[in-house]
Amino acid sequence: MLQTFHELNSSLPWLFPALSILFGAIIGSFLNVCILRVPRGESVVTPGSHCACGAPIAWHDNIPILSWILLRGRARCCGRRFSIRYPAIEALTATLFGACWFLYPPAQALCGMVFLSCLVCATFIDLDHMVIPNGLTFGLAASGVLLSILVPQLHGEASGIYVVDALRSGLSSVLGVLVGSGLVLWIALAAEAILKKEAMGFGDVKFVGAMGAFIGWQGTVTAIFGGAVIGTLWFALAFPISRLLNKRPETIMKAETPEGQPTELCFGAQVPYGPMLAIAGALHFLVLHTYVDAYFNQIAVLFATR
């Protein structure tokens, strides 16, 4: 089977990257369902996709990205508008899946696809409802630990002895959960003591810990401080623009748009910290992990030589 895979990959080098992007668009369509239904406690399987008017959506009107373009963002049955966020999430997921395939070997790429899918889902649920469901967080943590054992290369373990590599990778994953959640908890408690009010929700504590199962403790450090930088940049842009538009920043507590459509975000709205953490965590996994690991290794060498 592996030989067939390598032969196909050699003769048709574009095939698997194209399939990964297509697969990402399909998963993105499913994530749209999860983002809307999971916070409501609804099944993500039944009923099938349907319009706000209640009419079921035919399969040919539910093709990721393409259907939205062909229908010009409107439902065929009643002409109601579909949010542009639907194809945007599908395109985002497709791009992330393609990046995973280009940047990693197949097994690690598949692990990355699971990780990034959870981040996308958590990001938009948090934007809409200011909460990250426990089921999603715990599922992210559990899948991270399990995949770390099955694919030790996820944490850079490649000695050639599977049992040893799996044990080390699993321990790295668990350590990522503990350090990530513990570090955020202490930061949250310190900020609360200084500001005399809650500065960070406990959901963010669990979320960073869950990310640590995939990206290790080094990745959680990147997520925490990188998320702070991203959040600072966001608000540095948001407040001047909101003043120009004469809009007062307000907090989005839950999705309240008509017919269950996703909340349309604008620069005048405050956003929770979860999306910033997710963006930083994704950047670490895709781009920054090599530099961050090298940085911490250098620090370890400096301390070891003293």
Explain how this protein is built.
This protein has 306 residues and is mainly alpha-helical. It folds into two domains: 12-103, no CATH class; 105-306, no CATH class. Helices cover 67% and strands 1% of the residues. It contains nine helices and two strands; from the N terminus they run ααααααααββα. The protein has helices spanning 2-11, 15-37, 66-70, 85-103, 106-129, 134-150, 162-195, 202-244, 274-304; strands at 250-251, 269-270. The chain has a two-stranded parallel ribbon. Helix 2 packs across helix 4 (85-103), helix 6 runs antiparallel to helix 7 and helix 7 packs across helix 8.
Summarize the structure.
Helices cover 67% and strands 1% of the residues. The chain has helices spanning 2-11, 15-37, 66-70, 85-103, 106-129, 134-150, 162-195, 202-244, 274-304; strands at 250-251, 269-270. Residues 22-102 form the Prepilin peptidase A24 N-terminal domain.
